[in-house]
Amino acid sequence: MTTASVQASDTDSNLDTALATVASEISRTDGKASLLLAFNGAVLAGLASVADHQLPTTAKVFGAAAVLALATAAVLLLLVVRPRLHGRDRASFPYWARLDEDEIRACMNGDTRAARLRVLSVIATGKFRQLRHAVDLSLAALALLLAAAVGLV
Q1: Is the model's pLDDT at 8 over the cut of 70?
Q2: Under 8 Å between Cβ of 124 and 29
Q3: Is 41 within 8 Å of 141 (Cβ atoms)?
Q4: Does the record bear Membrane in its keywords (predicted)?
Q5: How many domains, the chain?
Q6: 33-39 long-range contacts, CB within 8 A, separation 24+
Q7: How far apart are CA 81 and CA 60, in angstroms?
Q8: How far apart are CA 76 and CA 71, in angstroms?
Q9: Rounded Cα gap, residues 131 and 40, in angstroms
């Protein structure tokens, strides 16, 4: 086996592994976002149950800020799980969905793994960034709720 064919084999294997890894990371972000959405929804439901109670002004202010943080986190989490269907990249199923069979075959003549890896990596990075911000907002909301609870004492 020549050095060039060994390098090509390594590249093929690395591309396949990288594609599987990035696809797995995207699935992980969707799962985490779903769990956090359920958590934030439960906290918001709990806050709604005390909304009609007479509370000190401090508790109301911190509680309102917590609701705002949780709502913003929920929006970010919904954006994490929102499908990306623009398909302008020529290496994903939304793009291929607009093609006829002959155009799809023409797209498959070359190795598209590197392009798909780039597209999936951009998607994964965006999802993780939004997930991180949502977690930060959820933690801030919990701190605000703690401050509101201290204001009740």
Answers
A1: no
A2: yes
A3: no
A4: yes
A5: 1
A6: 33/77, 33/80, 33/81, 33/127, 33/131, 33/134, 34/81, 36/73, 36/77, 36/131, 36/134, 36/135, 36/138, 37/74, 37/77, 37/78, 37/81, 39/138
A7: 31
A8: 9
A9: 13
What is the pLDDT at residue 87? 67
Chain segment 11-46, per-residue pLDDT in tens: 889 999 999 999 999 999 999 999 999 999 999 999
Q: What is the DSSP letter of 53?
A: S
**Long-range contact set of residues 139-144: C-beta below 8 Å, sequence gap at least 24:** 140/69, 141/40, 141/43, 141/65, 141/66, 141/67, 141/69, 141/70, 141/73, 142/43, 142/66, 144/62, 144/63, 144/65, 144/66, 144/69
Q: Which domain holds residue 140?
A: 3-152
Phi-psi region of 110 (alpha: psi -120 to 50; beta: other; left: phi over 0): beta
Q: In the structure encoding, which two tokens stand for residue 122, read together? A: 């951009």
